[in-house]
């Protein structure tokens, strides 16, 4: 639908400070150019809007056969629930979420949504039910309108305006010379990190999927902007099943459930209060250890 723009100096900045961002970029490319091993099964059906009940059933997966990451994961997430995944770096938090839109194929067991094996759905219909917000936002060289409409290509002008309003991007747009027609990119206006995040959020409001994956930002935004974005994300997650890949414990206290992942296993789960009350709890010790890390989960902190 267009060409990514990504100035070279930006790439270097990303490599230096956001190793996570590159992983996100990789996943996005994989999303666009679907991996050869992930394809529609014969007889796969196009599902309509799903409710968003998610179940991992004895799920097995590894990026290579020699190194399994999940060896029988069982996890249920109820429609509308917000679950935050925490745990040390490399525990498998991102992988759990990447398997849901089938960026990779499970090696055993299954992942079900509303009781249907995701492999029995067409990729297109599955992914139309899932919205992903990553800290790296992918913009096309084009107008703000087109960039928002990427969330749903057949959206009307009204719907685009409404999505921008809900993402609180309307003020930004009003201040730009050509409003929604303002061209962003190499030859246009450069958006700030916070504005890009808002644009990403507007896309998802427009797409309106029942399932949301939030790959939480690790840094880059100032505290005020960060707070405002968190507020918008909280609104975005309302009424949607939300999986949060959490890098900062401070922002997940309001999740309905916190799932602590270690070595591809769920080692603990419960509400923030429940987990903090556990004397020898993993979450409790992560929480205690974070104090000196500016709120970053120890081991998850970026360079
Ligand atoms: P972090 O907090 O650092 O993002 P995480 O809990 O999200 O960690 P994952 O990214 O899911 O962990 O990684 C789980 C394991 O899989 C790690 O050992 C990681 O090195 C490995 N891994 C992740 N992505 C890939 C990939 N694309 N190819 C091969 N191995 C991978």
UniProtKB/TrEMBL annotation:
<keyword id="KW-1133">Transmembrane helix</keyword>
<comment type="similarity">
    <text>Belongs to the ABC transporter superfamily.</text>
</comment>
<keyword id="KW-0812">Transmembrane</keyword>
<feature type="domain" description="ABC transporter">
    <location>
        <begin position="54"/>
        <end position="288"/>
    </location>
</feature>
<dbReference type="GO" id="GO:0005524">
    <property type="term" value="F:ATP binding"/>
</dbReference>
<keyword id="KW-0472">Membrane</keyword>
<keyword id="KW-0547">Nucleotide-binding</keyword>
<protein>
    <submittedName>
        <fullName>ABC transporter ATP-binding protein</fullName>
    </submittedName>
</protein>
<keyword id="KW-0067">ATP-binding</keyword>
């Amino acid at each position: 639908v267009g060409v990514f723009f990504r100035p070279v100096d930006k790439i270097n900045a990303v490599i230096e400070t956001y190793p996570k961002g590159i992983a996100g970029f990789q996943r996005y490319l994989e999303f666009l150019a679907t991996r050869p091993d992930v394809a529609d099964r014969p007889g796969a059906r196009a599902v309509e809007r799903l409710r968003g009940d998610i179940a991992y059933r004895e799920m097995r997966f590894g990026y290579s056969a020699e190194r399994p990451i999940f060896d029988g994961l069982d996890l249920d997430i109820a429609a509308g629930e917000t679950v935050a995944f925490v745990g040390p770096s490399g525990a498998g938090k991102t992988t759990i979420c990447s398997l849901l839109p089938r960026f990779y194929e499970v090696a055993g067991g299954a992942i079900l949504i509303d009781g249907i094996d995701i492999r029995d759905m067409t990729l297109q219909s599955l992914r139309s039910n899932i919205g992903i917000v990553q800290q790296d936002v992918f913009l096309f060289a084009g107008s703000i309108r087109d960039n928002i409409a990427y969330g749903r290509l057949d959206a009307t002008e009204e719907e685009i305006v409404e999505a921008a309003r809900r993402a609180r991007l309307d003020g930004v747009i009003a201040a730009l010379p050509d409003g929604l027609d303002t061209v962003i990119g190499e030859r246009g206006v450069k958006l700030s990190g916070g504005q890009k995040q808002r644009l990403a959020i507007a896309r998802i409001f427009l797409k309106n999927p029942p399932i949301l994956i939030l790959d939480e930002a690790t840094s880059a935004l100032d505290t005020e902007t960060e707070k405002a974005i968190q507020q918008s994300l909280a609104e975005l997650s309302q009424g949607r099943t939300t999986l949060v890949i959490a890098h900062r414990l401070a922002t997940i206290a309001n999740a309905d459930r916190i799932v602590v992942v270690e070595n591809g296993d769920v080692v603990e789960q419960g509400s923030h209060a429940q987990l903090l009350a556990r004397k020898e709890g993993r979450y409790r010790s992560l929480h205690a250890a974070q104090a000196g890390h500016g709120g970053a989960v120890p081991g998850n902190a970026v360079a």
